[in-house]
């Protein structure tokens, strides 16, 4: 409480500017709930500063999480694109090989199996992309319950 004296002088200045002292009623002024002394005033200020600090830390943490999520989703997208590119190259190579006439009857069955496997992988990649897009859309939505809680705490702190 090294700043206690400065808070006392602030409380005295506050009282000398025509504002009634805490606990003293004047006919023209309604009684407001104000701290009764400088120590309580300082404690109130300290609590509000601590709450602001916590809110700022929470905000920074949320921003960092958003940034990490974005980086992760970009990495996943890049991996999926690389897989698709490799699949297309394999398909193109198989198509070129089959068009060159170098495919025998036994290898044709293997190409069909490869084609089926690639089709399944493409379907999985599409599903992953759709899930990623849904997650991205959900991240942009505002949680009204959370907003309501924030406003409630703000109003309680400023009364």
Question: Overview of this structure, please?
Answer:
Residues 24-32 have low confidence and may be disordered. The chain is mainly α and 159 residues long. It is rod-shaped and about 100 Å long. The longest helix has 62 residues, at 38-99. The protein is built from four helices and no strands. The protein has helices at residues 4-16, 38-99, 105-139, 144-157. The two termini are 24 Å apart. Helix content is 78%, strand content 0%. The protein has a domain at 66-139.
- Ranges where pLDDT stays below 50 over 5 or more residues in a row are 24-32
The total count of strands amounts to 0
End-to-end Cα distance: 24 Å
Please tell me the overall pLDDT: 78
The shape is: rod-shaped
**Oligomer class:** single chain
Which series of helices and strands comes N to C? Answer: HHHH
Q: Please describe the biggest sheet, giving its number of strands, its sense, and whether it closes into a barrel.
A: none
Structural class: mainly alpha
Number of helices: 4
Percent of residues in beta strands: under 5%
Tell me the radius of gyration: 34 Å
Helix content: over 70%
